[in-house]
Each structure stands twice: as C-alpha cells, then as structure tokens.
Design goal:
The protein is 69% helix and 3% strand. The chain has helices at 3-10, 14-22, 41-55, 60-70, 77-114, and strands spanning 30-31, 37-38. It is elongated, with a radius of gyration of 20 Å. The protein has a two-stranded antiparallel sheet with strand order 1-2. It has one domain (3-114): Multidrug-efflux Transporter Regulator, Chain: A, Domain 2. The chain is mainly alpha-helical and 118 residues long. Residues 1-69 form the HTH merR-type domain. GO terms for molecular function: DNA binding; DNA-binding transcription factor activity. Keywords: DNA-binding. InterPro entries: DNA-bd_dom_put_sf, MerR-type_HTH_dom, MerR_fam.
Length: 118
C-alpha cells in the first residue's frame, strides 16, 4: 500500500511516518520503481505496536531502543522482554492511580446526587 493508504490505515500522518523512518522506527521500507514507499502488512503490525507503546506512555527514545534491539534477533530477547516488563509495571501503577482517582470522583459525584453537598 502507498503512503496515503498506510497513513489512513495506521492513523498517523505521513509526516509522522517519515519521521519514524528517519529515527529508525520504520526500517527497510520497500519502494516501487518510481521511488514511492510501499508498505506491507508487517509494517502495519509494527506501527500498530509502536502506537500502542506510545499511547501507554512509553517515551519515543525507549521505543527506538526497543526497535534497535529487535534488529539484534534472538540475542536481544531478554533485553526486549525487560523493556516491556518495566513498561508493564509502570502501566499497572498508573492504572492503580487512575482507579483511585476514579473512586474519588465517584464519591464526589454521589455526594452531589444525594444532595448532601451544597
């Protein structure tokens, strides 16, 4: 698929995709005879995963490091697992904090609904 189709499919602008390519998050992008980028289903899966990491708070430099390690093959599995495990631990803490915030908001909303607060 071309840049426009890929951009629409993954929900990122062409500018962002070119930037990801520049910093090494998108590698070995095929090009057609006229030099235009041609993306594959593998590229869609990878960018979808990158977006998931980013949307869950992983910094871009950490994602770039993860991508760099991925190029190292099976020798880097432990390092990649470590990166993802640390990120997971952070997400669990964040979820717990958000649940506490939600409980506090629910408590306040229920006070308003009950009419016990002026």
């Amino acid at each position: 698929m071309n840049m426009k189709e890929f951009s629409k499919k993954v929900g990122l602008s062409s500018h962002t995709l070119r930037y990801y390519e520049k910093i090494g998050l998108l590698k070995n992008i095929n090009r057609n005879a006229s030099g235009h980028r041609h993306y594959t289903s593998h590229d869609v899966a990878w960018v979808t995963f990158v977006k998931r990491l980013k949307e869950t708070g992983m910094r871009l430099n950490e994602i770039v490091e993860y991508a760099r390690l991925s190029d190292g093959g099976s020798d880097t599995l432990a390092d990649r697992e470590n990166i993802l495990s640390k990120h997971r631990e952070g997400l669990i803490k964040q979820i717990s904090l958000l649940e506490d915030h939600l409980k506090a908001l629910d408590y306040k909303i229920n006070l308003y609904k009950s009419g016990k607060v002026c």
